Predict the structure of Uroporphyrinogen decarboxylase.
Amino acid sequence: MAKDQMTSLERITAYNKGESIDRLPCNPNIANGAARVIGCRVSEFKNNGRLIAEAHIQAYRKFNYDGVRVFTDLYVQAEAMGAKVRYPLDDTADLDTPAIQDVADIERILPADPYKDGRLPSHLEAAKILIDQVSKEVPCSGGVVGPFTTAFFLVGVEYMTRLLLKNPEAVHRLCEVSLETSLRYADAFMEIGLTPTISEPLSSCTIVSPKHFKEYSFPYLKRLIDFIHSRGKAVTLHICGKTDKIWEAMADAGANCLSIDDVASLSDCKKQVGDRVRIMGNVDPSGIMYAGTPEDVRKATLECVRQAYNNPKGYIICSGCSLPIDTPFENIQAMMDTAREIGDPADSDLLARE
């Protein structure tokens, strides 16, 4: 099996400059599955930045993928603003109770202080450890939840869905306070040295219409991305589910790279906005990475590369979303091995259709 000839940081740096690389960048997006690498329970990550960092460092060292990210779940910002979160013993946290039950109480919601509130300080602790221990080898990032998604969690998904139709002013007020938390959290990550990435799952066309995305999510997303750009950082944006009707808007918001879910088409995305943004994805995280065989992973990875390796702004091999926690190690390894086997896709015979 082919071996890497460059470190992850060398590879990404060269790729960004249009220089030759040993293989395409590849990041399986292991997420909380890093707990399995060190044999701990996911719930042990709560307020334990050192353990979060240890898990991701060991996972990176095991598979040698091309990016390490501080991220545990979608609720850390909403929780720091007053929402209540459930912590299963060995699964990803979930929303329990919104911060408020009525829009009349919006004024009670204050932006979070990432150095004091909720679990945010522990994530910053993890960030510092990553920068200290692996940043000279691999790009390090910090996951920030987008303003629109956090706004949903502050009042609950069902209530927010009604507000979209009946109370636009309240939606904008919720997005505004959520944006301030996102800005502060992104700033804290950048002060440490990490690059923020943005997850905006509830901006998906599976959840809201493109019209509502452009009205409620886009303005705040663009302000967040503009702020990150002002600090000299590029931005990867992930929105789950169907996104083809908002790819142009996602690019207009300033995203440098779009992370594409497996229900969307890499080739279509390339045709529509590939001259404007890098794309990454989109091996099925559940049906292939979790439930498939290593050969299934190999075939799916090859197909993704066939579709997108020649994207004008570049392409990164990745799963369509965060991997399920118990994704088999051999499947994660299969994705990495396939990337190494392909090498330079422009010269690879493997991409000829069987």
In short: The chain has one domain: 8-336. Residues 8-336 form a domain with the TIM Barrel fold (CATH 3.20.20.210). The beta strands are 26-27, 68-70, 84-86, 94-97, 140-145, 195-199, 236-238, 257-259, 278-283, 315-319. The mean pLDDT is 96.
